[in-house]
Amino acid sequence: MIVKYQALLDKMAASEMPPDAQYRINVEKICRFRIKAAQENLDDPEKVEELCNCGQVEELVIQADNEMKVLDMYLREEWWKHVKPVEIEFDPTDEDGGHGDVEWGDHPDDGKKK
Questions:
Q1: 17 or 83, which is more confident
Q2: What DSSP line would sit under 7-36, residue for residue?
Q3: First and final CA of the chain: distance in angstroms?
Q4: Average per-residue pLDDT for the chain
Q5: Closest CA to 71 of 54, 4, 2
């Protein structure tokens, strides 16, 4: 398991994918977490499974193999070049999330029909 997740990290490090590509950030975090969980619990696969919370150790190995296939496609197609930044306006102090008086499920014209 450790070898397979390390292989993912090594492949990304040797690639042209930028370090700030969100896919790379996400996969690196998952790999590092799972490697650490496995290294710290070499004799306790149940603990590794509990920490990773994504199946049995055998399934975690399969997930690493599957992620390698996805990574190969991602690198071949250079998908990070197709991801465009999205600007999201969000005001955490706005209690209704910027939706005004309308409650979810209400039709805007419901108050006008009488």
A1: 17
A2: HHHHHHHTSS--TT-HHHHHHHHHHHHHHH
A3: 66
A4: 89
A5: 4
